Amino acid sequence: MMICEDLNECVQNPLLCAFRCVNTYGGYECRCPGGYVLREDGRMCRDQDECEEQLDDCSSRGMVCKNLIGTFMCICPTGLTRRPDGEGCRDENECRTKPGICVDGRCVNTVGSYKCECNEGFTATSVQTECVDNRQGLCFTEVLQAMCQMAASSRNLVTKSECCCDGGRGWGPQCEICPLPGTGRFKKLCPLGPGYTTDGRDIDECKVLGKLCQNGQCINTVGSYRCLCKPGYTSDLTSTSCVGMYVITL
After folding, report:
1. Nearest 5°: phi and psi at 190?
2. Which CATH class is domain 212-249?
3. What does DSSP assign to residue 162?
4. What is the structure's pLDDT at 212?
């Protein structure tokens, strides 16, 4: 009489499973630790996304699920902070916890966020979290010993970003010195770089700087300008100035 015994595949081949091999009658199965599930090959393990499979309880506490390797955690939405007991979220008063916001205005806390009530001459952005300087003043291309030189002005009233993001050296009745390109203050005032205002509008250099393209006409372009030169003159390699054409006669 022939008697068959179960073969323990897990003992015979320890590499059958990536994590744990469990012998069964006539076979075996691979199991994964908590937070992981088997891959399609039935041997390897992968992270289980509890958030996508809705295995979490975050929403019941007004929180958001964030998947982690092997587990998950409940976090608070933007603008809210975790309660001391960890069982939910409460509004974060950004006006207190984030000093320095709403420069040139007053910070007003709202549920989950905040808004800026701006000073006179300043306008709130579309999301109302920052004040844009819309004051009008003269732009100066020359500043000597912190004094703006009137002769170096186009006499057109422009905003500070129109001036300082376009090569100006000083702006306004108090001669506010423009930040130097490459500095943090310049990047904040001119986030898109030279040629564009704080809120992303193209700057008309011909209006702002004036006295451009001597011996020609200044033509504004997106982010810059070019010169249309008079007869007898030609534009230089950058097309931003006119130089005389020399004619050699024999």
Report:
1. -125, 70
2. mainly beta
3. H
4. 86
Sketch the domain layout of the chain as residue ranges.
9-47, 94-132, 135-206, 212-249
CATH of domain 135-206: 3.90.290.10
pLDDT at 240 exceeding the cut of 60:
yes
Angle, CA 236 vertex, CA 208 and CA 228 arms, to 5° = 55
94-132 and 135-206 agree in CATH topology: no
SS3 (DSSP) at 120: coil
Q: Evaluate if pTM is beyond 0.70.
A: no
Q: How big is the chain by its Cα radius of gyration, in Å?
A: 34
Q: Look up the CATH number of domain 9-47.
A: 2.10.25.10
In the block, residue with structure tokens 């006295």: 211
User: pLDDT tens, 55-98?
Assistant: 999 999 899 999 999 999 999 998 898 988 888 999 989 999 88
What sign results for the dihedral spanned by CA atoms 95, 96, 101, 107? positive
3-state DSSP assignment of residue 10:
helix
Cβ neighbours of residue 6 closer than 8 Å, sequence gap 6 or more: 23, 25, 26
CB 11 within 8 A of CB 17: no
Amino acid letter at 13?
N
Tell me the three state secondary structure of residue 19: coil
Q: If we measure between CA atoms, which residue out of 14, 17, 48 comes closest to residue 31?
A: 17
Give the pair of three-digit tokens for residue 93: 């008063």
* Beta-bridge mates of residue 68: 71
- What tens digit of pLDDT does each residue of 136-176 get? 999 998 898 888 887 667 788 999 999 999 888 999 999 99
Question: Residue 133 and residue 15: Cα distance in Å, rounded?
Answer: 67
Topology of domain 94-132 in CATH is Laminin (2.10.25)
| Tokens found for residue 107 | 């910070």
